[in-house]
Specification:
The chain is mainly α. It is about 70% helix and about 0% strand. About 10% of the residues have low confidence.
């Protein structure tokens, strides 16, 4: 069972590399949004993601006026989640936002694989070994 830590190290390194790539994609989206539509950026609370506090920086909930149309977002995470960035017709924002979402999905899959590997090595592998 000496190979078990290697599996976890490889998955942890992949998760860390994907975290860096996801941060870079998010940073590019914010930078480009500030360049082409500063008012939208300000409306969403002026999100400035940093590597360690990026979630807190752009998911702060702000109440909206009920008379405001549903296409106006005050949260950057909602704007990304609802794919409202496609309305800007900017290739750079669209590509980086889609990359950000895809990397998040891959990170979720890696998390599931880690849990399954842990359960396998903890409860199954020792019973199968001769």
């Amino acid at each position: 069972m000496n190979y078990v830590p290697t599996v976890y190290v490889i998955l942890a390194m992949a998760f860390l590399a994907l975290s860096v790539a996801r941060y870079v994609s998010l940073r590019r989206v914010v930078t480009r949004l500030k360049q082409i539509n500063m008012s939208k950026w300000v409306e969403m609370g002026s999100p400035e993601p940093t590597f360690f506090s990026r979630f807190r920086d752009y998911t702060t909930w702000q109440p909206t006026n009920l008379r405001v149309p549903t296409t106006v977002h005050t949260e950057f995470s909602m704007w990304l989640g609802e794919r409202d960035y496609e309305r800007l017709n900017d290739v750079e924002i669209t590509v980086n936002a889609q990359r950000y979402r895809l990397i998040g999905n891959v990170q979720f899959v890696i998390s599931i694989v880690v849990v399954c590997a842990f359960l396998y090595f903890r409860f199954v592998a020792h019973r199968v070994a001769p």
